[in-house]
Design goal:
The chain is α/β, with parallel strands linked by helices. It has 9 helices and 8 strands. Helix content is about 40%, strand content about 15%. Strands 7-6-5-4-3-2-1-8 form an 8-stranded parallel sheet.
Length: about 230
């Protein structure tokens, strides 16, 4: 393994600390989620041993295979689009689903979560860029969706998530991160309870510094930890 996960983790944590300092925030208030798409179980275990305590997968089937070996020593997040027909499987694998984007998926998760006696943490994914290639609720649909989810007994909505377009210049992502924070503030003003909105999941390897400056509480980092993703 050529990638030095321990050194990369130290570098990422330093960047988090620096970005938090620039925005007068406590670095401890920012959660690092390691994105492990295409990363082997051996390397994931190396990251866990180095101190990573939260990992994210894009697909249910990949998480199932990896969790068999990694287990529940870490918190598991789903950050990819979830099809409703895989909602039941997702309940048994993930601690947090960051990609709830419509009422039908929320109701399916509520039903299966209730059957297991589990209260599942979820975030509402917002498609601020309105890209057809990305999942997420359009901003104007977020308020009614949040109202619906916050009324469910077996789901606990904890915040918002977004994935902006990719830019070589990270500064160009700032308006999207700022928009998510402003949307959160507007939802609070409109009566959505604060605990439903405590998390802002935004920022990846190329731009999480900017996201933190704009209020991110969760950053999803893969390449900066594990190197360029294998595409084979």
């Amino acid at each position: 393994m050529d990638t030095d996960v321990q050194a990369n983790l130290s570098s990422v944590l330093a960047r988090i600390g620096q970005a938090a300092g620039r925005s007068r925030r406590d670095p401890a208030a920012i959660r690092l989620v390691a994105v492990t798409k295409t990363v082997s179980e051996d390397v994931i275990l190396e990251a866990v041993q180095a101190g990573v305590d939260c990992i994210a997968e894009n697909y249910v089937q990949d998480a199932r295979k990896k969790k068999e070996r990694i287990g529940s020593r870490v918190q598991w997040h789903l950050i990819g689009h979830l099809q409703k027909n895989k909602a039941k499987q997702a309940i048994g694998l993930f601690d947090v689903i960051e990609t709830v984007d419509d009422e039908f998926l929320a109701v399916a998760l509520e039903r299966f979560s209730g059957e297991t006696g589990k209260v599942l943490d979820v975030l509402v994914q917002v498609n601020l860029s309105r890209e057809s290639s990305k999942s997420g609720a359009p901003p104007e649909n977020v308020l009614p969706l949040m109202e619906r989810i916050c009324g469910l007994r077996s789901l606990r909505c904890v915040g918002l998530m977004t994935l902006p377009p990719y830019f070589e210049d990270a500064e160009r992502t700032r308006p999207y991160f700022s928009a998510l924070r402003k949307l959160r503030d507007e939802l609070v003003e409109k009566g959505i309870p604060g605990p439903c909105l405590r998390e802002l999941s935004m920022g990846m390897s190329s731009d999480f510094d900017v996201a933190i400056e704009e209020g991110a509480t969760i950053v999803r980092v893969g390449t900066a930890l594990f190197g360029a993703r294998k595409t084979a």
